[in-house]
Structures are given as C-alpha cells and as structure tokens.
Amino acid sequence: MTTDTLLEARGLSKTYPLPGGGSHTAADAVTFTVPRGGALGIVGESGSGKTTVARMLVGLVRPDTGTVTVAGRPREARTPRGKQARLARAREIQMVFQDPYISLDPRLTARDCVRTALRLHGRDETPAEALLDQVGLGTREAGARPRELSGGQRQRLAIARSLAVDPRILVLDEAVAALDVSIQAQILKLLDEIRGDTGVALVFVSHDLAVVRHVTDEVLVMRRGRVVEQGPTDAVLSAPEDPYTKLLLASVPGEGWDPADAVRARASL
Question: Are 63 and 12 in contact (CB under 8 A)?
C-alpha cells in the first residue's frame, strides 16, 4: 500500500444463507484502494453487491473475510465498545444514504441536527451555520425540520451532518438516485467542491454511469458480487474491456442509441 493510499479494501467477501437452503454470495474477494482526496465509483445493476461493499466499509455489515484499512490502520470488524473508540471510528468513514429522511431526526431542525453531531463528537457547535451554508442551506432551511425540506435539501443536510465530524472518507450510496436531474447536478457540483476544499475521499455507489463519470477518478464495476473491471473512470467508460461493462454502457440512452445494442450485449454474456 502506497503512502498516498487512504482507504484499502482487501478481499472483502460476504455470503448470506437463503431461506430455502443454499447461499447467495453478495461480495466475492473485492479489493481496491482510494487515495487521499480521491473519488472511487462502484457501479453495477441491482443485486451486483455494490451496496454490500459500501456497508462493509462503514461497518454496518461484517465481512466474512477480508479487511478494511484507513491510513494504514485496520478497522476492526466489531464495533468498539468504548464511546471514544466508537466516535473515532465514525470520524474515519461517514455514509450518506439514498433516502436521508429515515436517518434524520424528524423533531430536530437542520441547525439542531448539525449541532447535535458536533456536540456528540465533542466539537464546538458554532460551525453549524457555516456547514449548512457550505452545502447551500440558508437561514430559512436551517430553521426547518426534515419534513419541511425538499429531497435535495434533505440530502444537503445529510452531507452537512456527515461533514460535521470531519470525516476522512465519505461513502455515498445512490445518494442522488431519487433526485431530479437538475438537483442531481447541484449535489454533484457540491461534492466536487467539498472534495477540493476539505480533501475528503469519496466512495460513490451508483448504477448511473453518467453520474459516476462526472464525479469519480476511478471506477470499479461489479457483477454478481465480483469485480469484473476497474481502472481510471474515463478509460473504463470510454473503452471498456469486459462484456458486462459494455452492456451497462449500451443500456444508457443517448444520441444515436439503439436498444437492440443492449439486447445483443446481454445475449453475449
């Protein structure tokens, strides 16, 4: 592992038992690195295993085998018992979900939500307003509760709350999938600016290749729990080598798009 590597996942595997017998391998020996301030995209269709990998990085799912290392320090598979150890672990990696509403306390205003995160980590609550401003939430939004905010505003709040603990890595699981295209563009621009300003590394989980192309440096393509292709985003998405990556690209509508190309690409797998 080079000195520039911030996050390293090595050999992450996870298998789930099936109700009728047998098992399902959600992730099979997934390995990658992310440099300091870098951005990695993990792409694939539903059921490819990308969300399982994201949850293993954060600690919401315990891998059967494999390790996650942040700045050369292994993250234990078990959540630490002590409060300070748990908080230190949370500061390494934060996660933003597709639907932030379920992770926001409906009783708290946006301002109080960020203040609570700062207070929990023993930090001064004063920067709360600046954090909200950084993600484009003004005075009116700061005093609003989650139900009074739009989907895009709630996603901005979730990002602000994650940034409040000064994380080294931000994992975003389909974080813009449910948003209108214009709002998606605003959030992606925001994430790019935050990465430039803070140096936080991003792991962007998505099925949307256009989104991944815009916001990441490297991309990892997953199918049925396995990595089928990985490398620089522009290279992989411009000249894919694996038939599955070609299928994903052939399935994206655009100028001159022919759905028959996607049918032929799937038939060739």
Answer: yes
pLDDT in tens, 187-199: 888 888 889 888 8
Q: What is the pLDDT of residues 85-123, one digit of tens each?
A: 777 787 789 998 877 778 889 999 999 999 999 998 888
Return the percentage of the chain with pLDDT > 70, whole number.
Answer: 94
| DSSP class per residue in 238-262 | HS--SHHHHHHHHTS--TT--HHHH
Strand runs labelled E in the chain = 5-17, 23-35, 39-43, 65-70, 73-74, 93-96, 169-173, 201-206, 218-223, 226-232
Beta-carbon count within 10 A of 184 CB: 20
